[in-house]
Design a protein that fits this description.
3-dehydroquinate synthase activity, DHQS_C, Rossmann fold, NAD, seven-stranded mixed sheet, globular, nucleotide-binding, alpha/beta, Dehydroquinate synthase-like, alpha domain
């Protein structure tokens, strides 16, 4: 698969990853290399990565605990302190090996340590490959509120080696697939249709779909790097999806939802709202609902959950001037941004999901 140039960052795939990073390290006079991992990528991904890294530069490994609950400023403080204790300077390189928590947090750590050091992302989950790999969004959560603190700044390189996907459980693969399905709905009916028979997809098909998903996001981000317009379309399903994810994360009585699992619900709700407000065909909304629930199952969202979920939407990053802004669909591949939605229609959407 061809490498993809995304602004001042290049995204490489599979075998080309290691040729590229070795050449990059050889061409830059780094003082030290630091690798950020969690306990999972330390065990399952780091040994293979180190085996293919060709350098005499000192390498230090920094491990943090996995999970969205650890995507916090406190974790950053721990990593900043460790970097300082291990002698990191402005000529150091930070390599982030992991899912979206590692690449988001590691990128933010790199951008802020000594006012910025070089970093490279090695996404190891499907979600991070097709979502966090493109666009330079870095940051951490503020309490249970997702991605409230951060900056937009590209890594030097992104290395997507799909072999790492073999280390993932099925629920993590499904979570990543949700973002790819979103890319289809907002950008291309042709791409969306490629997912209609998921059982027929093999590893080679998935590689090509990942590459196409990265291309889709790269195209959007190039046009609108700072989310002033078109880039907002990437938030389809996320206004309610993020609120649902946060609600389930913050309520100790509920099972935590993975990001993609919450976004699937958010997309069903957004499709219904699109049918009610901007003319998206209800027949297509019903097909989307059936397709998603057949593959992901249905989550029990009690009527008592709805108000706290809707209250959480006020923290969505797309909001401005006190308005909660939705991304809706006029047709597959034709999103509409900055849509205001009445609370009653949102409640109706929850009823539609539950029915």
């Amino acid at each position: 698969m061809n490498s993809i140039s995304a602004g001042d960052c290049t995204i490489h795939f599979n075998k080309v990853c290691y040729t590229s990073i070795n050449q990059h390290i050889n061409n830059n006079n780094y003082s030290k290399i630091f690798i950020l991992v969690d306990e999972n990528t330390h065990q399952f991904c780091l040994p293979n990565f180190l085996k293919l890294l060709e350098t005499d530069i000192t390498i230090e490994i920094i491990e943090i605990e996995s999970g969205e609950i650890n995507k916090t400023i406190d974790t950053c403080v721990g990593v900043w302190n460790t970097l300082s204790e291990l002698g990191a300077d402005r000529k150091s390189l930070l390599i982030n090996i992991g899912g979206g928590v590692i690449t988001d947090l590691g990128g933010f750590v790199a951008c802020t340590f000594k006012r910025g050091i070089s970093y490279i992302n090695v996404p190891t989950t499907l979600l991070s490959m097709v979502d966090a790999s493109v666009g330079g969004k870095t940051g951490v959560d503020l309490g249970h509120l997702k991605n409230q603190i951060g900056v937009i700044s590209n890594p030097d390189l992104v290395l997507i080696d799909t072999q790492y996907l073999s280390t993932l459980p099925q629920n993590q693969m499904r979570s990543g697939l949700a973002e790819m399905l979103k890319h289809g709905l907002i950008s291309s009916e042709e791409y969306w249709n490629k997912f209609q028979d998921l059982s027929a997809l093999n590893a080679e098909d998935l590689d090509l779909l990942i590459h196409e998903s990265v291309e889709i996001k790269k195209h959007v981000v190039e046009i609108d790097p700072f989310e002033n317009g078109l880039r907002k379309t990437l938030n389809f399903g996320h206004t309610l999806g993020h609120a649902i994810e946060t609600h389930f994360l913050s309520d100790p009585k509920k099972n935590t939802l993975l990001h993609g699992e919450a976004i699937i619900i958010g997309m069903i709700l957004a499709a219904y709202i699109s049918s009610e407000l901007v003319g998206f065909p209800m027949e297509t909304t019903l097909k989307i609902k059936d397709f998603f629930i057949d593959y992901y199952g249905k989550v029990d969202i009690d009527k008592n959950d709805r108000k706290p979920i809707m209250d959480l939407m006020k923290y969505d990053k797309k909001n401005n001037y006190g308005n909660i802004n939705f991304v809706l669909l006029e047709a597959i591949g034709k999103p509409k941004i900055d849509c205001l939605v009445d609370e009653k229609i949102i409640i109706d959407a929850f009823e539609f999901y539950a029915s």
